[in-house]
Design goal:
244 residues; single chain; 3 domains; mainly alpha
Length: 244
């Protein structure tokens, strides 16, 4: 795969579109990102553009090597080329230096994206999303948040533990979880679980669920909203039950 090309292109296009939504001019976006004006104009106009398409056919099989070297701090194209040659790479210097140019540009765009302060809603979404489902940029943001605010990392771990406990029906984890939750950022939730512990125990231990009932209630509310709240009982019955 061409250096996880699709994921990188999506992140770059996202940054360009976000800048456009903020009201920045194309000239300013070009200045900040280093992307050509033509490419910025296409992406800002809604056209998906592959800003990483380079001559990498000879490099493609070796991509894990320069990627690992780059992460170790080797950012010089000529040096990367020499090290690749030592591993039987037969491609030209130009292919490698072009790769380094685009890799450097990608890192710059990711840095711009990371410097944006996410909204509280976005932070909540990222902190409650499985780590395996986070994008590379979101994973870095979450790591920085957890490093700066350890209490949030603890809260995230507690939420993961609660979901696992419910999903695996492990009742023995309930009391330790309540004890840990009461001294965390989700203490209010922990206190609520403690006050309604019998119901929580039933949720974990019993095979029964109110999901079907809640689904029907949600359906009823949706139908009523579709009719702008003017539905009477007979009309709702006709919509939900149908002609007898």
């Amino acid at each position: 795969m061409q250096y996880e090309g699709y994921l990188w292109r999506e992140e770059v296009n996202k940054v360009i579109r976000a800048m456009k939504d903020e009201g920045l001019s194309l000239k300013e976006i070009v200045r900040r990102t280093g992307i050509s004006r033509g490419t910025v104009r296409k992406v800002a106009g809604g056209i998906q553009n592959d800003v990483f398409r380079v001559r990498e056919s000879s490099l493609e099989a070796y991509l894990p090597i320069p990627d690992a070297l780059w992460m170790e701090g080797c950012h010089n194209g000529a040096e990367l080329w020499r090290r690749l040659q030592a591993r039987d790479f037969r491609g030209s210097l130009g292919v490698v230096t072009e790769w380094t140019t685009h890799r450097r540009r990608a890192d710059h765009l990711r840095l711009i994206d990371l410097q944006r302060v996410p909204s509280a809603r976005k932070i909540a979404r990222m902190m409650t999303t499985s780590r395996n489902n986070l994008t590379r940029t979101d994973a870095v943001i979450v790591a920085n948040i957890e490093k700066s605010v350890p209490a949030l990392a603890t809260a995230r771990t507690l939420l993961d533990r609660f979901q696992t406990m419910i999903r695996k029906r492990n009742i023995s984890d309930l009391s330790p979880w309540i004890s840990d939750a009461k001294s965390s950022l989700i203490a209010a939730f922990g206190n609520g679980v403690s006050k309604d512990i019998d119901a929580i125990r039933n949720v974990i231990e019993q095979p029964w669920s109110s999901g079907q009932i809640e689904g029907q209630i949600n359906k009823l509310k949706m139908v009523k909203r579709q009719m702008y709240g003017r539905a009477k009982i007979d009309l709702l019955q006709a919509r939900l039950v149908g002609p007898s």
